[in-house]
Write a structure and sequence with these properties.
Number of strands of chain B: 2
Radius of gyration of chain A: 18 Å
Radius of gyration of chain B: 23 Å
Distance between the termini of chain A: 33 Å
Structural class of chain B: mainly alpha
Order of helices and strands of chain B: HHEEHHHHHHHH
Strand content of chain A: 25-35%
Number of helices of chain A: 9
Strand order of the largest sheet of chain A: 6-7-8-3-9-10
Largest sheet of chain A: 6 strands, mixed
Distance between the termini of chain B: 9 Å
Oligomer: heterodimer
Largest sheet of chain B: 2 strands, antiparallel
Shape of chain A: globular
Structural class of chain A: alpha/beta
Largest interface: A-B, 27 and 19 residues
């Protein structure tokens, strides 16, 4: 399918409020739409609520009010809905969070077998294909602690992809990596974007954002300060605050 | 793993001769203290009478003496209590970590009640008060009392182990759609149990020793057999020392077994 043709809205967030215990306001009347196959990059200073936004999308954080729908399923009290959304939304963390007591292959197989109810053989085949895709087929039987950070993060991406999610969330996926490893992880993310994966990416990588994203969001204080097509966002930002931020990071 | 290699490095730099020398010196001092102590006691040692209570040779066959019979009962009680204690411990740890207020309260009350009263009183309470109601045997009362007691301590160990697992592990499991049950069984507990193996071993060793208390409700374990022999023969010191040595043998074997297991687990993690 042509990537320029926008798909239907797959993520629909309306008027979400989220305050952490202690009164820190993480999201304030936050609304956004993401279309299928779109790559949305979220930027903002730390504490702006961008990670909280991502974590709300798969139910890792509870919203105080407002609504979130993923591919038509409401993230509400209904446990089946929540489980469905957790299955359909893959997440990649800053700290990888691989399961250290399982080999790379077992990390990939686990949820396929337990959640997707695949047979061991089916899971294994898909896992091997995914490891090929992220470029480390030779690490299949190794424990995660013996891998470099970049390799671990690529395994983490493969593990999320093993669930065949409709949406992938990246929460500062390269922030814990040195520049060389950052490159190898970003390459995998770029490839995913090219293949038409719907992605919401929180990152500080300006180059990646500019090259890969379709749309940019700039957040501060739990609100969207500016939102727009990537090229316009970088070349002619409307808001003074965005200009200031960009001038500091570029 | 890192710790082990640092340790190995430190020891390898020292000559083993110094360690062996120090060990022999300690043994010599201990022997001397025991020797002078017992000599001053003016006790008539009759060690030669002890072996018959361990093993008998009759008609060309070896038969287990009363102490070995008692040891078997101790094994049965400890084995059953160990399984039950760890189950109670795990269940109450999960209750304490659950979202349910009721579950948390029940676990808390169990813990405080058991940890703050003497085991001997609990044993008597179960044997004299509960057993007649529920028609429990002496053996069952003993196992129940021991496992409730050790379970309360195991509970805190399990809880500490579970809490020590990084939040990211839960979040990764959550984002993959794993159920709470699968998350515990496949992700959290396998990692937690590796970490808590040393304190769980101490708990198992305590259980072996605490099982001696069941002799007070006339369960014929190792200690009870010993007391019986002493009342017949007045070989108090010989038999008590023998019993202590047998307990020591069991607990040390247990420690060695677990450290071997730990080493094997360490190779994978």
């Amino acid at each position: 399918m042509d990537k320029n043709v926008p798909g239907e809205e797959i993520i629909v967030v309306d008027n979400v409020f989220k305050t952490f215990p202690g009164g820190v306001c993480a999201l304030s009347d936050f609304s956004i739409r993401v279309r299928r196959k779109e790559v949305l990059v979220v930027m903002g200073p730390s504490g702006s609520g961008k990670s909280t936004f991502l974590r709300c999308l798969n139910g890792l954080e509870e919203v105080d009010s407002g609504s979130i729908r993923i591919d038509g399923i409401a993230l509400d009290e209904d446990k089946r809905n929540r489980l469905e959304i957790r299955k359909e939304v893959g997440m990649v963390f800053q700290s990888f969070n691989l399961f250290p007591h399982l080999t790379v292959l077992e990390n990939l197989n686990l949820a396929q077998i337990l959640v997707r109810k695949k047979t061991r053989k089916e899971a294994m085949e898909f896992s091997v294909a995914l490891l090929n895709k992220v470029g480390i087929p030779e690490k299949a039987n190794i424990f995660p602690n013996h891998l470099s950070g970049g390799q671990q993060q690529r395994v983490a991406i493969a593990r999320a992809l093993a669930m065949m999610p409709k949406v992938m969330l990246f929460d500062e996926a390269t922030s814990a990596l040195d520049p060389e490893m950052t490159g190898e992880v970003l390459a995998v993310m770029k490839q995913l974007a090219r293949e038409g994966m719907t992605m919401v990416v929180v990152t500080h990588e300006m180059g990646f954002a500019r090259e890969v994203s379709d749309r940019m969001v700039f957040m501060e204080g739990g609100r969207i300060i500016e939102e727009g097509p990537t090229e316009q966002f970088f070349t002619t930002p409307k808001e003074e605050r965005t200009r200031l931020f960009l001038s500091q990071v570029l | 793993m890192k710790v082990a290699s640092i340790k190995a490095g430190r020891y390898s730099k020292r000559s083993p001769r110094a360690d062996v020398g120090a060990f022999l010196l300690v043994i010599a001092v201990l022997t001397w203290i025991t020797g002078t102590g017992t000599a001053k006691l003016g006790y008539n040692w009759q060690w030669y009478r002890v072996p018959q209570y361990i093993l008998n040779h009759e008609d060309g066959r070896w038969l287990a003496g009363p102490l070995i019979d008692g040891l078997m009962v101790t094994f049965e009680i400890t084995g059953a209590s160990l399984v039950l204690a760890f189950s109670f411990g795990l269940i109450s740890a999960l209750c304490r970590l659950s979202d349910s207020y009721l579950a948390r309260m029940v676990a808390r009350v169990y813990l405080e009640l058991i940890r703050n009263t003497p085991l001997l009183v609990q044993l008597f309470f179960i044997y004299f008060v509960m057993a007649p109601i529920f028609d429990l045997s002496r053996f069952a009362s003993a196992v129940l009392a021991l496992s409730l007691f050790e379970g309360a301590y195991a509970s805190e160990i399990f809880r500490a182990g579970i809490v020590s697992i990084h939040k990211g592990q839960w979040e990764a499991a959550h984002s993959l759609g794993l159920s709470a049950f699968d998350t515990y069984m496949r992700i959290i507990l396998p990692q937690a149990i590796r970490r808590i193996l040393p304190p769980l071993t101490s708990q198992a060793i305590s259980l072996v020793k605490d099982s001696a208390l069941v002799s007070t409700i006339a369960v014929y374990d190792l200690t009870m057999r010993g007391r019986e022999i002493i009342s017949e023969t007045f070989l108090a010191f010989e038999i008590w020392f023998t019993i202590a040595a047998i307990y020591l043998l069991v607990t040390v074997s247990l420690s060695i077994l677990v450290s071997l297991m730990e080493r094997r687990l360490g190779e994978t993690g």
